[in-house]
Design goal:
The complex is a heterodimer of chains A (810) and B (346). With 810 residues, chain A is an alpha+beta fold. Helix content of chain A is 24%, strand content 30%. In chain A, the strands form 11 sheets. In chain A, strands 3, 4, 5, 6, 7 and 10 form a 6-stranded antiparallel sheet that branches. A 6-stranded antiparallel sheet of chain A has the order 29-30-36-35-34-33. In chain A, β31 and β32 form a beta hairpin. A 7-stranded mixed sheet of chain B has the order 1-4-5-9-8-7-6, sandwiched between helices. Chain B has a two-stranded antiparallel sheet with strand order 2-3. Classes of the chains: A alpha+beta (810), B alpha+beta (346).
């Protein structure tokens, strides 16, 4: 909310400098986002008096004026406006002046006459809304004074929190300032000179639903002359960020900003019989609103109507037909209270949220209906010369007493960690208008409201330990004891809360769920450059029902899709090489049950070894990805992964994709997933930059919450191990993994390890063949092996390999 | 052959051998000379073969001469060998000389995303104060994300959280980590000190300071005597640990429906240090998190009696912390995964 200090100062004395006030308000919870100095941009603009106004010798539409600024020779200034006359005091921008929008004024020649500056309109100074005529200042405005000294203002932009609808007003913020300064408050002028027939002869209001409209106060102002508001009012509204429209519209905006009370005005001539009805819309009803949009009204919409039909959407927007215009003579003032939820839903439904609906949504004290009606009537009389009919139409004149909220002063100390005496607490509350009483002596216990809303709770407290806060009607946010305690802390100052460290018992140890995730991240970051990132998901996909864009409508089921997009985006920026991973979640549903799972996604593209003066560039290939998966398995204390052919994943190259499986037990594998090269057809169809990218999507046990295995520190074998090599010739398409499995299965208990160390194709082998050379390591921790047992194991391997279709190459 | 002849031959052999040793260009030649002269089948042996033809009385004399000759040759060989070895070593070192000024062979190592790093750093600090990580679901139900946090439907405060809904009935993408407070309280008994990091989602268009997907770290401490003063003390310690000791902090009123009292927590501007600059909106302070005492309604939904238990909660954006700490100007950098940006956080 924009708060001009000149306006605020009408209601409270302000001794503090603007920045100091801003800081104090911020520390009171009314955060000031900025302190703006209006007029700081007017340099060299002073008050002048027109001495002569004559026709420009060579241009009919221009005037040639002489102006004095009180000292020095009169200045000749050329002016295009028509509202000027000798004797008027006007703003003069002297040569060298700078106006809003960084507009520089220099001595110029206009149609053969030198102009020594410029006379300014209100709009050019951003002071009023008038851009047609020169701003005519009051006759007693002192000559030669810089305009900034007269009309400059300081505007605070205050971030009013949603619970403090009462502070969305100048008066409300003046109350906060008074809490800071301890000074008294002045109230807006509400007294109205009334005359003519009583309002009851002119206006009747029927409310059909007192829940949706708890109070409606109407006033009738006759004989208004619709025109611009006084300049000072226009200046003030503009400073507050509202564009002046006309005296009638400005009056309702003024009351809204000043009191926080949205006001609606009707052209009384457009209201059938002067009879207003507050009711819900009926099927098929339509209304052309002020923005000239014809709207179909649905039946939850609260309306202000007359006998002929809808006139306005209550609290949200008026209708075009009953809008106050230049032809309006009599005005009906509506100052009503509406149900906040109803207004909020309606404003959302028609996408018509406004400063007015915002204030209704936060809830308003019913007293405001009367205050707003009287204030608006007074302003209409003052600014538009209207005659106010005696009395008000009021559907619920009874105004509530302050709410009584009992609290325990000792509880404040316990919650805040700050000891405040009972008298001190009462004095603090008084500063924000909360009177404090001791409970009546005849009641033994008092009910303390501990919680309200959907989970109310009250606690019985001995009357001697309790106080009762009388909460002013405008503080609709203070419902329970904790609210009163916050008020104590706020007024006393959060800076006076002590700084202590918890001295309460420590909770017992709990293992972190992040152990495996952090270790995976650390391991991969150690291997390759990383970033923040798909195997088919589980269940059906989940859709976002109100997505920001079609790209974000589906919750991801896997990570690699996003990672490939990252690679594509980086390549678009010219970064060819990438090695990235993400430990993240995928989402899916099983019936009405939402599921989330943790995954690891990895993607490689471009060079795995970037070129250097001492090394050739080496492109990443599937073996690099397998190496990463192997290193990861090692870091997680898992056995070496097994890769098996995967030709059925449509996103992956059918000849360059594999499933990964590591360890596991009855609960499933310890690590599983798929790796492969992005399908070349995908690159062709989607983005060429994804071509050749290698991806992995892995499920790892413990990624969601798990602990790491503790490595066993075994003593290295003292007895030498024995290596034996064997080359097995098989058909070229035969996977090496299969042959390795045959070896493992038949080499016997002494086998420690099997490693493929060479693959050979060519002479003397047939073209359809290849030779796979494995190194087998045998050993026994307790003894040295003898030649015969190793030979027996190798013979078993040889015959199994032969039986599996291989030929031993000697 | 007599004694004189033999002695002369031995002397000639000595002179020849010494000359050859002196002329040997390398150690391999010395080896050859040694074999040729002193070896089993060498010249000295063959000269001495003539000793058998001498009278027995002369034989010891020849033997003495021969030993002298052998000694002289061996000494010359050793001398020459050591000379040659050092020059050969020098030559070898010269041959093996490298241009040591060339760059090394590049090694690769990666880094973690700055969001992840910031979350780990935050968690590390609070773990020192006995907080344990407790994660919560991202697809939440409306009840836990809003209503149990004292935000009923159509509450004006819902404006603070523009929400993305999903097609699982009653569910949405959590707008904050705060529903985790409810889940922690339902799962653990006080004393509770829990940290809830995780991803959150909001229906917000992406700009320099907003994203529709972002991380948050929530903290919750509940016990019988946990006070607002404890919250102030703990957050002050956190700011010192995160941004450096001696940093001034500020506690001021804030607003959240699920805390009462509510707090906004500021640290002195990390750019200007207080006087005010564009980075801090000329206030000299930067807001780093929101916090407050857990609302009695929330405690009850967590299954705790607000008459017995009280505590605080706080929530912060690791990206914001990271932006402040590293001087990052645009939140979108955290989402773009531009490797040129990420490479700076090794």
């Amino acid at each position: 909310m924009r708060v001009p200090l000149s306006w605020l100062a009408e209601f409270v004395d302000i001794e503090l400098a603007p920045e100091a006030l801003a800081e104090r308000l911020t520390l009171l919870g009314m955060e000031v986002r900025s302190v703006e100095r209006r007029g700081a941009e007017w340099r060299n603009v002073v008050v002048g008096e027109l001495l002569t106004v004559a026709r420009h010798p060579r241009a009919d539409r221009l005037s040639l004026t002489t102006v004095t600024t009180g000292s020095g020779a009169p200045l000749e200034i050329v002016c295009g406006a028509t509202n000027i006359a000798p004797g008027q005091r006007v703003p003069v921008a002297l040569p060298g002046a700078v106006l809003p929008g960084n507009r520089r004024i220099e001595r110029t020649e206009k149609m053969g006459v030198v102009s020594n500056g410029m006379l300014c309109s209100g709009d050019e100074l951003q002071l009023t809304g008038d851009g047609e005529g020169i701003l005519i200042l009051p006759a007693d405005t002192p000559l030669g004074v810089p305009l900034a000294d007269l009309f400059g203002d300081v505007v605070l932009d205050v971030d009013v929190k949603p619970n403090r609808g009462d502070a969305l007003s100048i008066v409300g913020l003046a109350r906060e300032v008074a809490a800071i300064t301890g000074t008294g408050l002045r109230q807006p002028l509400l007294d109205v000179v009334e005359s003519g027939a009583p309002v009851g002869d002119r206006l009747a209001v029927t409310v059909h639903d007192a829940v949706l409209c708890p109070r409606f106060v109407g006033r009738w102002v006759g004989g208004v002359r619709v025109g611009p508001s006084p300049d000072a009012i226009q200046m003030r509204l503009l400073a507050a960020g509202v564009r002046p429209i006309s005296n009638v519209v400005d009056a309702s905006n003024y009351v809204m900003l000043e009191l926080g009370k949205p006001i609606h005005t009707f052209d009384a001539g457009a209201v059938e019989g002067g009879r207003l009805v507050v009711r819900l819309a009926r099927a098929g009803e339509r209304l052309q609103t002020l923005d000239h949009v014809e709207r179909d009204l649905d039946q939850d919409t609260l309306l202000i109507a007359d006998a002929r039909g809808p006139l306005a959407i209550a609290g949200v927007m008026g209708g075009a037909a009953s809008e106050v215009s230049d032809a309006t003579i009599d005005v009906i003032v509506e100052s009503a209270i509406f149900d906040p939820v109803s207004i909020r839903r309606t404003a959302f439904r028609y996408a018509l949220r406004s400063e007015a609906s915002l204030r209704f949504e936060k809830g308003q004290e019913t007293r405001l209906a009367r205050l707003g009606a009287d204030r608006a009537a007074r302003l209409l009389a003052d600014w538009a010369g209207g005659t106010v009919a005696p009395g008000r139409v009021d559907t619920a004149p009874q105004e509530p007493d302050p709410a009584r909220v009992a609290f325990r002063p000792a509880r404040a100390g316990r919650l805040l960690g700050l000891a405040l005496g009972v008298d001190e607490q009462a004095a603090l509350l008084r500063r924000v208008g909360i009177e404090v009483e001791v409970p009546a002596p005849d009641v033994p216990t008092v009910a303390i409201p501990v919680a309200a809303g959907t989970k109310p709770l009250s606690a019985a407290c001995p009357a001697v330990d309790a106080l009762v806060a009388l909460v002013p009607t405008w503080r609709r946010d203070l419902l329970v004891e904790a609210d009163i305690i916050e008020e104590l802390a706020r007024v006393n100052g959060y800076d006076r809360i002590p700084t202590t460290l918890p001295a309460t018992p420590m909770p017992p140890f709990r293992p972190t769920p992040l152990a495996v995730r952090d270790h995976v991240r650390g391991t991969l970051a150690g291997l390759a450059p990383a970033a923040a990132g798909e195997t088919p998901g589980e269940g059906d996909p989940i859709w976002v029902t109100n997505p920001l864009s079609a790209d974000h409508a589906l919750l991801r089921q896997n990570l690699v899709g996003g990672l490939v997009e990252v690679i594509v985006a980086n390549r678009r920026r010219g970064r060819e090489d990438a090695a990235i991973f993400e430990v993240g979640k995928g989402y899916g549903r099983l019936a009405d049950d939402a599921r989330e799972w943790w995954r690891l996604g990895i993607a490689l593209a471009g060079a795995f070894d970037p070129p250097a003066w001492n090394r050739e560039r080496r492109a990443a290939d599937l073996d690099d990805m397998k190496g990463i998966v192997e290193a990861l398995a090692g870091a997680l204390g898992l056995p070496r992964p097994r890769f098996a052919t995967l030709a059925t994943e449509p996103m992956l190259h059918p000849g360059r994709a594999a499933t990964v499986l590591v360890g596991g037990d009855a609960d499933g594998p310890a690590l599983s997933g798929a790796i492969g090269e992005v399908h070349p057809a995908l690159a062709g169809e989607w983005d060429e930059r994804s071509r050749g990218a290698l991806v992995a999507e892995l499920s790892i046990r413990g990624l969601a919450a798990g602990s790491l295995p503790v490595p066993r520190g075994l003593t290295p074998a003292r007895h030498p191990e024995v290596d034996r090599d064997i080359a097995i010739v098989v058909t070229a398409e035969r996977p090496a993994g299969e042959i390795e499995a045959v070896i493992r299965d038949h080499a016997g208990p002494l086998l420690r390890d099997v490693r493929l160390f060479d693959v050979y194709r060519g002479v003397p082998l047939a073209a359809s063949e290849r030779s796979l050379a494995f190194r087998l390591t045998f050993g026994d921790p307790d003894r040295t092996l003898n030649e015969a047992e190793v030979e027996t194991a190798m013979a078993a391997v040889t015959s199994a390999a032969t039986a599996a279709g291989g030929r031993i190459r000697s | 052959m007599d004694l004189a002849d033999l002695t002369r031959d031995l002397d000639a052999l000595r002179l020849r051998a010494l000359a050859a040793v002196a002329a040997a260009p390398d150690t391999a030649t010395l080896e050859a000379i040694e074999v040729d002269v002193l070896g089993k089948k060498g010249e000295l042996t063959s000269v001495l073969r003539g000793i058998g033809a001498l009278p027995p009385d002369d034989r010891p004399r020849v033997g003495a001469v021969a030993n002298t000759v052998r000694g002289a040759i061996e000494a010359a060989l050793a001398d020459r060998r050591s000379g040659l070895a050092s020059s050969e070593l020098a030559a070898r070192l010269e041959r093996e000389r490298l241009d040591v000024t060339t760059p090394g062979r590049p090694l690769r190592h990666g880094s973690l995303h700055p969001s992840i790093q910031a979350m780990a750093e935050i968690a590390g600090i609070f773990e020192q104060f006995g907080f344990v990580v407790h994660e919560s679901q991202e697809i939440e139900d409306d009840l836990t994300n809003f209503q149990m946090l004292n935000i009923p439907p159509d509450h004006p405060a819902r404006d603070l959280w523009d929400t993305l809904y999903v097609d699982v009935p009653g569910h949405l993408l959590r707008t904050h980590t705060s529903p985790g407070q409810i889940r922690v309280m339902q799962a653990m008994r006080p004393p509770i000190r829990a940290l809830l990091p995780g991803r959150c989602f909001r229906y917000e268009s992406v700009d320099a300071s907003h994203g529709f997907e972002f991380f948050q770290v929530e903290g919750l401490m509940v016990d019988e005597g946990t006070t607002l003063a404890d919250l102030k003390g703990l957050l002050d310690q956190f700011a010192q640990a995160m941004f450096g000791t001696g940093k001034k902090t500020r506690f001021r009123p804030g607003y959240y429906p699920f805390t009462e009292p509510s707090v906004a927590f500021d640290v002195e501007c990390l750019v200007c240090g207080g006087p005010g600059c564009p980075a801090c909106g000329r206030s000299g302070w930067m807001t780093i998190l929101g916090a407050g005492m857990v609302h009695p309604v929330v405690l009850q939904y967590g299954g705790l009696d607000p008459e017995r238990y009280q505590g605080f909660a706080f929530g912060m954006g690791p990206e914001r912390i990271s932006m402040l700490k590293h001087g990052i100007s645009d939140l979108r950098l955290f989402m773009d995964n531009d490797l040129r940006f990420l490479d700076q956080f090794r």
